[in-house]
Amino acid sequence: MATEQECVDALDVLARRLGEVDPAKWAEHAVNRSVSCHVSDLGLSYATRITSTGLAPFEPTGDPRAAQVRLTMKSADLLELAADKISPAKAWATGRLKIEASVLDLIRLRKIL
Questions:
Q1: Are 42 and 76 in contact (CB under 8 A)?
Q2: Nearest Cα to 30, choosing from 51, 56, 55?
Q3: DSSP state of 47
Q4: Of all residues in the chain, what percent carry a pLDDT higher than 90?
Q5: Mean pLDDT of the chain
Q6: Helix (H, G, I), strand (E, B) or coil at 113
Q7: Alpha-helical regions (H) of 1-113
Q8: pLDDT tens digits, residue range 67-99?
Q9: Contact, 48 vs 81, CB < 8 A?
């Protein structure tokens, strides 16, 4: 199990990585959406907002269910995603990453990941 600070650092890594996506591709596929990440084994939740110009920093949130796109995973899986040891697609396919979003949002996100 990871620490809270390790999870915050991992989210920062993922946010920076998303910031490296080609700006034209990002603007074409990203739409204004709220996103939450719930770290289930630690009971921690963080939220951000995706816009056509980028990703806002992750901030602690008390209500991850309020987001339009909701991610849930264990802390160890979050660290593996940040370290590029597992892809988001593989994590989702193996049940290590749960995603709740509309089908259209999933398609859009897939195009920028």
A1: no
A2: 51
A3: E
A4: 62
A5: 91
A6: coil
A7: 4-19, 23-29, 75-82, 88-93, 103-112
A8: 999 999 999 999 999 999 999 889 999 999 999
A9: no
